[in-house]
């Protein structure tokens, strides 16, 4: 491992670190900054850093919103039996709110619109945070129908909840079979015969990669979820000590739309979220994981169909020496009548203009799919390739799509650092350690 760590008995507490921040004496570094120092050959000791800000941005299916708002005057209807928000179905309840004209709703991030196959809960939540009007279609228990429009500023209760977010790391996928497969792990049918690879995870930036023993991340830890102050509530679904993930929540009113969104896969819309988590360095032993680089973090390459492990690579294989941002050169656009990029872009970040394609950076996820689809090579980035020995063959497999946006995760970690240093985000001790049931 690069760098060195101090494993002495010296230790400090989170309140002591916050006191140093308040006094202007704390050293706060992003995970990217500390990794750059390690690559430059520096030895990092406990006195060199007090807090590391980490982040991850990617597809996180385990997401739902809880909303409560008024849609009519009292006694206009008994209760709602079905509700659509921009065509996305909501679960009505748990409170029936009989005759109050108020809806309590649960909306899944992976719910799909009844009218638009490329629109889902992730798109809805981002549009709400952007302040756009939302159409609410209500079917009452009496069989009546009515529609109203609302917006997030008129919804007093709007919490986004995570059931399985911020994974320690994830996986890389290939399709060894001959037939292409529709899957949530690709925006197009996944080509077979090892022709391409997709992957998830931000490697050395990932929060739990930097605190795998969950020494500072616990129940009640304050985090930024899509830019809003939120809290960890425990371990997520299918979480385990060797592969943990987190649950949490935050208020949608305070979120940043660029950290959110819908991502259209070949199996339907998915949802994107962004976490930024501070890791206070309590003792020298914690530096062992803080100092790990991408090339030291394992990434399993698996068969898409059965999740069968094929070989083990590292996050260095997919993040080292690649371009994090997609470059668009409008002068190279051929203005094709049937633009394959517009058809394929899972974020809808590319649209048609008078003189060619328009690339909307606010929506771009830097997934890289546009590169393999553009006939004029107007979109470019080095996504890299992976060498893997499987099935008795040594294969070079090109990365064609990334389902984590490291460029935006870096920005989220920088934002958290700035908020800590200016006092707008305060560190807090967890209420309780996270544990797993056997």
Automatic annotation (TrEMBL):
SUPFAM superfamilies noted in UniProt: 4Fe-4S ferredoxins (SSF54862)
Keyword Plastid tagged: no
UniProt keyword list: 4Fe-4S, Iron, Iron-sulfur, Metal-binding
Keyword Protein transport listed: no
Gene Ontology molecular function terms on file: 4 iron, 4 sulfur cluster binding; metal ion binding
Domain 4Fe-4S ferredoxin-type: 324-355
Gene3D superfamilies: 3.30.70.20
Pfam families: HcyBio
Record-given protein name: Ferredoxin oxidoreductase
Organism of provenance: Methanosarcina vacuolata Z-761
């Amino acid at each position: 491992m690069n760098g060195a760590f101090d494993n002495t008995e010296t230790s400090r507490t989170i309140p002591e670190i916050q006191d140093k921040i308040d006094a202007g004496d704390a050293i706060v570094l992003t995970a990217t900054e500390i990794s750059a120092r390690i690559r430059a050959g520096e030895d990092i000791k406990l006195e060199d850093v007090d807090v590391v800000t980490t982040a991850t941005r990617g597809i996180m299916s385990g997401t739902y919103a809880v909303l409560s708002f008024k849609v009519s005057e009292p006694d206009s209807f008994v209760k709602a039996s079905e509700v659509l928000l921009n065509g996305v179905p909501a679960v009505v309840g748990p409170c029936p709110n009989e005759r109050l004209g108020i809806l309590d709703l649960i909306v899944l991030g992976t719910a799909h619109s009844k009218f638009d196959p490329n629109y889902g809960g992730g798109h809805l939540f981002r549009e709400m945070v952007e302040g756009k009007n939302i159409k609410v279609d209500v079917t009452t228990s009496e069989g009546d129908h009515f529609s109203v429009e609302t917006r997030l500023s008129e919804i007093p209760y709007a919490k986004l909840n995570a059931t399985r977010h911020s994974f320690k790391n994830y996986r890389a996928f290939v399709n060894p079979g001959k037939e292409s497969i529709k899957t949530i792990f690709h925006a197009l049918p996944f080509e077979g015969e090892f022709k391409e690879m997709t992957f998830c995870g931000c490697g050395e930036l990932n929060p739990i990669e930097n605190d795998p023993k969950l020494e500072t991340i616990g129940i009640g830890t304050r985090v930024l979820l899509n830019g809003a102050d939120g809290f960890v509530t425990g371990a997520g679904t299918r979480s385990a000590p060797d592969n943990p993930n987190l649950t949490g929540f935050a208020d949608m009113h305070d979120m940043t739309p660029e950290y959110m969104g819908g991502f259209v896969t070949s199996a339907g819309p998915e949802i994107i979220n962004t976490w930024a988590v501070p890791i206070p360095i309590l003792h020298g032993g914690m530096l062992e994981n803080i100092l790990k680089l991408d090339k030291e973090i394992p990434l399993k390459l698996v068969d898409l169909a059965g999740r069968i492990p094929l070989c083990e690579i590292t996050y260095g294989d997919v993040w080292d020496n690649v371009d994090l941002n997609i470059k668009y050169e409008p002068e190279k656009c051929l203005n094709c009548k049937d633009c394959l990029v517009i058809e394929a872009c899972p974020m809808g970040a590319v649209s048609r203009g008078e003189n060619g394609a328009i690339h909307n950076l606010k929506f771009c996820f830097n997934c890289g799919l546009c590169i393999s689809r553009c006939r004029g090579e107007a979109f470019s980035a080095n996504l890299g390739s992976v060498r893997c020995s499987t099935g008795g063959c040594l294969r070079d497999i090109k990365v064609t799509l990334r389902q984590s946006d490291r460029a935006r995760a870096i920005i989220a970690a920088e934002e958290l650092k700035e908020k800590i240093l200016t006092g707008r985000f305060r560190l807090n001790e967890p209420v309780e350690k996270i544990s797993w049931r056997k």
